[in-house]
Amino acid sequence: GAVVSQHPSRVICKSGTSVKIECRSLDFQATTMFWYRQFPKQSLMLMATSNEGSKATYEQGVEKDKFLINHASLTLSTLTVTSAHPEDSSFYICSAREIGGGGQPQHFGDGTRLSIL
Amino acid sequence: AQSVTQPDIHITVSEGASLELRCNYSYGATPYLFWYVQSPGQGLQLLLKYFSGDTLVQGIKGFEAEFKRSQSSFNLRKPSVHWSDAAEYFCAVGGGSQGNLIFGKGTKLSVKP
């Protein structure tokens, strides 16, 4: 149980393109989803926290107009990287947290490798 | 300040040997503690979690971890390592209504045949 599907797994595109990444909780409902960015050989950096039906909360230094997050349902959140540039190339990982108390774990997708040429 | 420290960046053990990965945390309230494992190019898989109760928690793949409040530690252990355990391991502490996690920098485990 607690499966999170992230799609696509890999994207290669030209500079200036907008890229949408989907994160779905397949067998549970998630009021809260998280988007992380991971640089090579580093830990995860939280970009934003997404709550169903409300605006996402972005971490300091993350441009909300650059990284658009939509959490339209209890099982789907999307991250759109707008007008992507080579410096946006990274590994993006989403997670979803089951409905419940503060101790509910986050379950992670398999990540999206984004390469901007 | 809330933080998680994994003092070992890289550990190499022989297959069949025992393993202990260290994790220390700083957290203002009662922490929820987690260990995750990440294989190259993939997301994170939850190994185990501690909320309350018994301080020795069992996880998947034969892993266990012990919460020691006096030492602010949550070390991960496995009695006999398999080659398939080679991966990056992350300790995390969380809490609050949103359940945000603070991750350590990770420990890379290599397994020698």
Question: How does this model look, in words?
Answer:
The complex is a heterodimer of chains A (117) and B (113). With 117 residues, chain A is mainly β. Chain A is built from no helices and 11 strands. In chain A, the strands form 2 sheets. In chain A, strands 2, 4, 5, 6, 9, 10 and 11 form a 7-stranded mixed sheet that branches. In chain A, strands 1-3-8-7 form a 4-stranded antiparallel sheet, with no helix packed on it. The N and C termini of chain A lie far apart (37 Å). By secondary structure, chain B is mostly beta strands. In chain B, strands 2, 5, 6, 10, 11 and 12 form a 6-stranded mixed sheet that branches. Chain B has a 4-stranded antiparallel sheet with strand order 3-9-8-7, with no helix packed on it. Chain B is globular. The relative contact order of chain B is 0.33. Chains A and B meet through strand 5, strand 9 and strand 10 of A and strand 5, strand 6, strand 10 and strand 11 of B.
Topology, please?
The complex is a heterodimer of chains A (117) and B (113).
Chain A: E1 4-7, E2 10-13, E3 19-25, E4 32-38, E5 44-51, E6 57-58, E7 67-73, E8 76-81, E9 90-97, E10 106-108, E11 112-116
Parallel strand pairs in A: 2-11
Antiparallel strand pairs in A: 1-3, 3-8, 4-5, 4-9, 5-6, 7-8, 9-10, 9-11
Chain B: E1 3-5, E2 10-14, E3 19-21, E4 24-26, E5 32-38, E6 44-50, E7 56-58, E8 64-68, E9 73-78, E10 87-95, E11 100-103, E12 107-112
Parallel strand pairs in B: 2-12
Antiparallel strand pairs in B: 1-4, 3-9, 5-6, 5-10, 7-8, 8-9, 10-11, 10-12
Write a brief caption for the model:
With 117 residues, chain A is mostly beta strands.
List its traits.
heterodimer, A: 117 residues, mainly beta, four-stranded antiparallel sheet, 0% helix, globular, B: 113 residues, 54% strand
